[in-house]
Specification:
This protein is mainly alpha-helical. It is built from 5 helices and no strands. The chain has helices at about 5-20, 25-35, 35-55, 60-80, 85-95. The protein is globular.
């Protein structure tokens, strides 16, 4: 079983690298090149697809769409300079 925290941290770091290096054949780099509006549009699209999958489709589809949403959300966070520690701190604060 994968540790979700480690997976998200690793993916976040990879996304940061793609933003910095903008490799030619990288989907992530293409998103950064298209800008904030495109990135946020993708987050919205994936959120809707995740909701629909959770409501009416198979567990596998819901898992796939959730992974897509988390990936695009991480791209948006990297784009805005928001790191996972900041998110964890806010979640921790809310748990008190």
């Amino acid at each position: 079983m994968q540790d979700i925290g480690k997976v998200l941290e690793s993916l976040y770091q990879t996304i940061e690298e793609r933003k910095k290096e903008l490799p030619k054949n990288s989907y992530t780099a293409k998103l950064f090149k298209k800008g904030e509006n495109k990135i946020l549009q993708k987050v919205g699209e994936e959120a809707v697809e995740t909701i629909l999958a959770l409501k009416s489709e198979s567990k596998e589809r819901a898992i796939s769409e959730t992974a897509d949403l988390l990936y695009h959300l991480l791209v948006a966070l990297v784009d805005r300079g928001i790191n996972l520690d900041e998110i964890a701190s806010e979640l921790g604060r809310r748990m008190r």
